[in-house]
Design the sequence.
């Protein structure tokens, strides 16, 4: 029973109470139905039957009273005739009441015995009614008598026949009384049966209610006991303890029942003790972590400062080494270039002597070519004029293109977003047209200058022919100078070769130093980045330790 869940016990208890209530209701409904059936039988059958029989009997008695009233009229008179006529009218009304009551009684449900009694009554009534029909005819004949003698004779016959009906009237009366007694007896039996059913229902209901009360009390007692056992105390006390712990007070002393180790409150007490111990350890650890984080933050900050200082110095060294490497490379390059230039100059000087001789001959030929060139230059002047006319046409086309591009840009602006691409193309076309126009104007200016230069060149070509002869003489002097330069270049070439060799060695050493400084700079950068990260992490760790300590201080522990 200890392992039964609280919800199962509650559901079972409520189910038992609900079942008892259902049984009580079912028994009550059955009793009500039984009593309703009996009462309905009394109200719908027995009482109407008794009322109908009473109405038949009352109408029968009225018929007999009317007969007795008519027998009292033994003398003839006008008042007697009127009275007899009234009796006949009232007799007809009584017969209608009897027939209606008999029809109503015939429609009521009856048992076999009741039906047999009704059939016997019907036979007696039929005979009785036939005799009374004859008696009514004699009464009508008596009321129509014209004189006292005739009335006396009719009255004696009427009186004699009325006396003969008396035994049959008694039979009808006895049949009616028997049916009335039977219906009254059945009514009393139905009422008695209803009382018996009511008493039995009350007894069963009382018994079941007593059993249900006992079971409900037992279930309530057991469920309450099990609930308190599982909770470990009153719900209000448990809620109070939970509220205090929820507020962070772990110093609360929880009162447990003797030997209670499995209840909710006992487990909660163990949890509070463990959490309190854990909070105390966390608080102590947070203090140690906070102190260590502050020391680490200070050390990392000092290391970061030193690393940054080294980084700045290494950066300056790296910059100086880069500059020195560049300078050494420039010196080596220039020395190599100078050596190559000296070698080339030496060779060129040797070749210059030959060239000078060839120049003399070439100048002689040049004079002849100058004459031909003069003719060509004049022809060039004519061609440049024709090119000028072509440029005029190109300039006209460029102006029209520029105008068309401007119109296209305006139309593209009107088109909005759809004409944006076309507007870009129009701008490019207009730009090209403008540049074409500018280039055309530039070409035109240059052609004009070419024309002027060509004319001037033609004039000067004639002067050049004269100077060529003078150049031949001076070329001989240039040959002597070149021989002197060749000797000097040879000496310079030897010195440049030595400088180039030393510069290349210095350049190799500088490049190696530069690579080492670059590696050191990269390592220092990485160290500085790591130092910054350590400093940031130390500060975050110090802040987290302080935050953890503040959070832990919210709880009260032993």
Sequence:
């Amino acid at each position: 029973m200890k392992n039964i869940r609280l919800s199962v016990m509650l559901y079972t208890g409520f189910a038992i109470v609900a079942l008892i209530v259902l049984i009580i209701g079912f028994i009550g409904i059955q009793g009500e139905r039984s009593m309703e059936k009996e009462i309905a039988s009394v109200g719908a059958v027995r009482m109407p039957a008794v009322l109908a029989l009473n109405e038949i009997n009352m109408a029968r008695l009225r018929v007999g009273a009317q007969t007795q009233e008519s027998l009292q009229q033994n003398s003839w008179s006008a008042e007697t005739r009127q009275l007899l006529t009234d009796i006949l009218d009232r007799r007809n009304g009584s017969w209608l009441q009897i027939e209606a009551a008999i029809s109503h009684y015939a429609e009521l449900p009856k048992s076999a015995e009741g039906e047999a009694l009704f059939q016997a009554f019907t036979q007696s009534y039929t005979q009785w009614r036939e005799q009374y029909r004859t008696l009514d005819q004699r009464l009508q004949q008596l009321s129509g008598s014209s004189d006292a003698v005739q009335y006396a004779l009719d009255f004696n016959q009427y009186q004699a026949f009325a006396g003969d009906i008396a035994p049959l009237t008694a039979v009808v009366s006895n049949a009616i009384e028997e049916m009335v007694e039977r219906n009254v007896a059945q009514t009393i039996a139905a009422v008695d049966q209803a009382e018996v059913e009511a008493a039995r229902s009350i007894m069963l209901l009382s018994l079941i209610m007593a059993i249900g009360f006992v079971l409900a009390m037992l279930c309530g007692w057991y469920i309450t006991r099990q609930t308190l056992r599982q909770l470990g105390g009153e719900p209000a006390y448990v809620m109070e303890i939970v509220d205090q712990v929820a507020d962070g007070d772990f110093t609360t002393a929880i009162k447990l029942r003797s030997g209670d180790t499995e209840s909710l409150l006992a487990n909660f007490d163990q949890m509070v003790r463990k959490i309190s111990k854990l909070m105390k350890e966390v608080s102590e650890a947070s203090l140690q972590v906070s102190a260590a984080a502050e020391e680490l933050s200070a050390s990392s900050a000092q290391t970061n400062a030193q690393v940054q200082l080294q980084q700045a110095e290494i950066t300056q060294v790296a910059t100086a080494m880069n500059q020195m490497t560049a300078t050494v490379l420039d010196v080596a390059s220039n020395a190599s270039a100078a050596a190559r230039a000296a070698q080339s100059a030496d060779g060129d000087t040797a070749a210059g002597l030959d060239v000078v001789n060839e120049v003399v001959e070439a100048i002689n030929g040049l004079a002849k070519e100058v004459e031909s060139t003069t003719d060509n230059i004049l022809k060039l002047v004519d061609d440049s004029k024709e090119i000028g006319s072509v440029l005029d046409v190109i300039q006209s086309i460029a102006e029209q293109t520029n105008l068309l591009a401007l119109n296209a840009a305006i139309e593209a602006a009107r088109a909005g977003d759809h004409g944006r691409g076309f507007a870009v193309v129009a701008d490019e076309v207009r730009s090209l047209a403008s540049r074409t126009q500018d280039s055309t104007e530039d070409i035109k200016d240059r052609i004009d200058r070419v024309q002027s230069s060509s004319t001037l060149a033609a004039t000067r070509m004639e002067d050049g022919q004269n100077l060529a002869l003078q150049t031949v003489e001076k070329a001989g002097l240039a040959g002597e100078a070149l021989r002197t330069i060749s000797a000097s270049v040879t000496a310079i070439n030897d010195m440049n070769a030595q400088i180039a060799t030393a510069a290349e060695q210095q350049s190799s050493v500088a490049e190696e130093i530069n690579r080492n400084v670059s590696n050191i700079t990269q390592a220092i950068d990485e160290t500085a980045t790591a130092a910054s990260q350590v400093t940031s992490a130390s500060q975050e760790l110090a802040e987290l330790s302080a935050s953890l300590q503040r959070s832990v201080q919210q709880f009260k522990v032993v």
